Request: fold
Amino acid sequence: MENEKKPVSSKFLSLILRHRPEIVGLQLDQQGWAFVEDLISKVQKHGKQLDLEILREIVDSNNKKRFSFNKDATKIRANQGHSVKVDLAYEPKVPPPILYHGTAGRNVSSILNTGILKQIRHHVHLSESLPSAMEVGGRHGKPVVFEVLAGKMFEEGIDFFRSDNGVWLTDEVPVKFLKQID
Reply:
């Protein structure tokens, strides 16, 4: 009986393209791009099933649109959320007046003391919609959502960026720009 390789999941692709490309021996360029051919080859050598069709399915069906191909689909990258050093080359943008940040209840006291910090990631992730923030916050228990006064932050010179999948990014959110939603 032949061992069948398990197809790559979105979660495994996130691990490789956002946090640990070395697991499969992959090199990301400075903007986080990997050659599709190289990714497929290295993942297959790692014992997982991956081809261009599976990769396209993961990119197209991922509900958070975490991944993007370049124009000719020869390269792929994660849109944000990296813990490895990359420069996604996003240009500063004017944010909406209010954005939202969803988190788990265990993080509330820390956030109320220090604000929202990027921790090991490159940026703090913010949502345009309350339902999206609730979904993010609910991944690790009962969600808690903070309203972020993004317009006021921008007026005070704090940069915002918008990833290819619509997530708003900034370096940190000081306490004075936060309001916990009950």
